[in-house]
Amino acid sequence: MKTLTTDVAIIGAGPVGLFQIFELGLQGLNTIVIDSLPEIGGQCSELYPDKPIYDIPALPNAKASDVVDNLWQQAAIFDPTFLLAERVEHIEKVSDDSFIVTTHKQTKIHCRAVIIAAGNGAFSPVKLKLPLIEKFEDKQLFYRISNVEHFRDKNVVVLGGGDSALDWSLTLQKTAKSVLLIHRSTNFKAAKNSVNKMYELCDQLKMQFLCGQVSNFQEKENNLTGLTITSKDGVNRRVALDELVVLFGMSPKLGPIDNWQLEMHQHQIKVDTQSFQTSVTGIYAVGDINYYPGKRKLILSGFHEAALAAFSIAETVLEKDRIPTLYTTTSPLVHQRMGVEHTLEEMLN
C-alpha cells in the first residue's frame, strides 16, 4: 500500500483536470491527479486525438491531441504527481479540510480538498462479445493503440465504425502489411472525409472494407488466426489476421462516484456556481461531471469552472477570507511560482 500527501487531489486527467493543475499551481497549491485511463487527455486522447477543436480561445483550429499537449506543457511547471490507470474507489472525509482518497490499487492520498474532473465518469472500452476471446487481450487483441510500430508489416483487422476506428485504420494502413476494416453497416459515425478516404484507399487496393459482424474466431497453438464474419444475408466469411483492433468506443460509467454521498442531478454532480463546491464541503466538481442551471458541456466552460474552484479552494486551504486576483502578466508572486524571471526594466515596460 502506498501513501501520498498533497494539497489537492484531482480526479480526472482530461483537459479540465489538466487546467485545474495550472490554476491551483498559481495559488501555490500542490496536486496529485488520478485517472483510470493509462494516459492523460481523457476523451480527447481516447476518442478523437486527431480531430480538430475549433472553440478553444486563441487556438482557432487545433487537434485534440495538440490541445492536451499544450495543457500538459502549461501544467508541468507545477510538477504534479500522476496516478494513471488507477480508479478512485473511496473518499473518506476526516474533516472539512482533510480527506483520504483511496484507489483500487490501495494507494491512499491524504489531501486538504478534492476536485472531481472526471468528465462523464470513468471510461472503459466496449468489448467484443465472443466467449473466450478475452484470452488474446493485449497479445493480439487490442482495445486501444499505444504503439503503432507493433502493427508494422502485420495483417490487421479493425472493428468499428466511428471516428476512432476510421482514423486508426487510415493510420495503420501506412505501416501494416494489410488493413481490413469491418463494420456492421455502411452507415458510419465518423467524419465524412475519413469515410471517403477509406473508400478511396479500398478502390486503390491499399486496404479493404467488409460489411458484417464477427460471429466466431479461429485459433491455432494459442494464437488468434482469424475471424468468422456474418453478413446481413447470413453468408459467413473467414478472414485471416495477425492482429485484431476493436474500436467500438468507450463506455462512460459513474462507477464509485454514485457511492460518494454527493447530491446528484441525472448522473451529474450538483455544484454551487460561486465555488463549484458539491454538497459535501471540501469536495468540488468541474467540467462535464458537474451540474448547475444553464450548464453547458464545453471544454471552455470547464476552464472557467476550474479557475473559480481554485480560488475557493485556496481560501480554505490557505485559511484566508479572500484570495486576491493576481495577474500572470504582472504579479511577481505568480512569476515566482511559475519559475518565470523578468528584469525590473521588463516589468516596468
UniProtKB/TrEMBL annotation:
- Similarity comment: family membership: Belongs to the ferredoxin--NADP reductase type 2 family.
Keywords per UniProt: FAD, Flavoprotein, NADP, Oxidoreductase
Q: What is its EC number?
A: 1.18.1.2
Which reactions fall under this protein's catalytic activity?
Answer: 2 reduced [2Fe-2S]-[ferredoxin] + NADP(+) + H(+) = 2 oxidized [2Fe-2S]-[ferredoxin] + NADPH
What's noted on cofactor binding? Binds 1 FAD per subunit.
Tagged with keyword NADP = yes
Q: Which organism is it from?
A: Colwellia demingiae
Q: Can you state the subunit structure given in the record?
A: Homodimer.
Alphabetized InterPro entries for the sequence: FAD/NAD-bd_sf, FAD/NAD-binding_dom, Fd--NADP_Rdtase_type_2, Ferredoxin-NADP_redctase_2
Q: What is this protein called?
A: Ferredoxin--NADP reductase
Query: Where's the FAD/NAD(P)-binding domain?
Result: 7-290
Enzyme class, UniProt record, top EC level: oxidoreductase
